Every structure is written in C-alpha cells, then in structure tokens.
Amino acid sequence: MNDTDLLHELAPEAERLLERHLSASKEWFPHHLVPWDRAARSDPRDPWDVEAHPMDEAVRQALFLNLLTEDNLPYYTSKIDRMFGVDDPWGAWNRRWTAEEGRHSIVIRDYLTLSGAVDPVALERARMKQMSHGFHQPIANVFEVLVYVALQELATRISHRNTGKLLAEHDPAGYEVMARVAADENLHYLFYRDASTAAVSLDPSSMVLAMEVQVRDFEMPGAGVEGFRDIAKNVARVGIYDLAIHHDQILVPVILRHWRLESLEGLSPEAEQARERLVERIAKIERVGRRLSSRREEATAGVG
C-alpha cells in the first residue's frame, strides 16, 4: 500500500480520532497559568544571575530543552503537511495540532521569563540557532511518520510530566504549566497511536518495517540543540528521561502491547526479518538501559 492509498483508507478513522480529540480537549489559557506575581521581583532585561534562581541544573536544562523543542514547531508542521496533505481530516488535524503545540511554547516561555529559571539571552540565542538548524529526523513515508510521531509524542509527554514533578515541591506554578502541557501531549499521542493501530490492521508488513526503522533511528526533536548529549545525560541522572524509561514506558506498552508486534500475522518475508531485528533491538535497549541506570545509582550512592 502506498502513502496515498493509506491516507485515503485511514481518512474516516482520522476524522473519528479528531472528533474524539476535540471532545476530550479542555480549553485553557497560558496567561492563567504563568506566575504573574513574580514579574515585580526582577527585571528580565537585567543581567541574569543564576544564584538568584536556585534550581537543580538538570531541571533547568530540561525546561530549556523542552521549550526549544516546542519552538521548532514550523518544521514539524511543514513535515506533516508534506506527508499528510492539507485537505480532509489529516489537514484539519495538523492545523489543530499546530495550534495546540504553539500554545505550549507560549506558556513555557512566559513561565520561564517570569520565573527567571533560565538565562533569557542564552535562551533566545539558542532558539535562533535551533530554528536555523531545523528538524532532520529521517522519515521515508507515511507509515514511518505515524510510528515516529506516536513514539515521540509519548516521549514528550513523559519528559514534560517528569520535569514538572521535580518542580512540584518548590515551584507549584512550574508544575502546573508542565502538567497542563503534558496533558495535551497525551491526547496528541493517543491520536497518533490509534491512527497507527488502524494502519497496522490495513498493512501490517509496511508498519512493521516502519517500526523497525524508527525505533532504530529514533531521536527526540530536541536532538539538534547544541549540547544535547550533555543535557540528555543530566536529565537521565534525575529521572526525567533515559533509556530505561524509553523501553519500559514507550517501546513495551506501544509496540509490544498495543501494536502487538510479536503476534502479528501475514507478514511479508522482509517484514518478518524486520520484526526479528526489532524484537532483538528492544531487548538490547532494555539491557543497556538497565545497565546505565545501575551505574547512575552506584555513582549517586558513592557520592552520598
């Protein structure tokens, strides 16, 4: 099945999922969530002083990365437009998704500006650089788009939510912002997960091939941010996102349980081989993730 045929066959399901999304979505406003009371405490135009804004550096970096990821929205929108088209339910979904994701960048930026959690000058310079770099996840067809965005939206939800949890005790406003964004991301994930599930029913072989490629090459949209590797290590250290989470909370529940990778029938020989590679890769990700988690725990215990 080619891309055009797949989108045409999935159009009724996409329409149903869009209607479900709209009925489940709650209206909210960024200006209701940002901590306006902090505006009088400091002038964001003054030189930023990290000592005036105590916070675990890993949480600060996660907020920085989360916003830069949301800022790259025009690239994601154009990519989906090229793959899905601008008409019918797919175009309507992409426009709605874009509007909601844009609101995420608004509320996180307003929160960071008012809270002083990050250096606004460094943030803007990084935004300009990130936007100039764009987004370059290798995606060959609509099957791969569906797989990637389902995994990515869930990963983003987890990252936002875990960042918010680390803010909860000392910064309730930051927690509320990230929890609200994470709730939206969960609805986005459900749309893409269930659209992908329908695609698995239509063409399981093509979807298995797409799963194998996208799990193998998976990167978060923020991977293009300067210093991403160091940031990733720090957010892993505090439990925001790491390889074990990627395995336990994304690959296992979505690919193995929901899409039922191991029990799919009628696969082509090529897809059968891809399934074998993918099952092996998921097992390897688990082993590596557990090993890295153990090393971090031992290092933390040693410091303590």
Q: How is the secondary structure organized here?
A:
Layout: H1 3-24, H2 30-33, H3 57-71, H4 73-84, H5 88-115, H6 120-133, H7 142-167, H8 172-202, H9 204-216, H10 228-237, H11 243-258, H12 269-303
Please summarize what this structure is.
The chain is mostly helical and about 300 residues long.
Folded structure, characterized:
The chain is mostly helical and 304 residues long. It has one domain (3-43, 50-303): Ribonucleotide Reductase, subunit A, CATH 1.10.620. The chain contains 12 helices and no strands.
Question: Tally of extended strands?
Answer: 0
From the alpha carbons, calculate the radius of gyration and give it in angstroms.
20 Å
Question: The CATH topology, please?
Answer: Ribonucleotide Reductase, subunit A
* Major sheet attributes: none
User: Which spans have pLDDT < 50 for at least 5 consecutive residues?
Assistant: none
How many helices in DSSP terms? 12
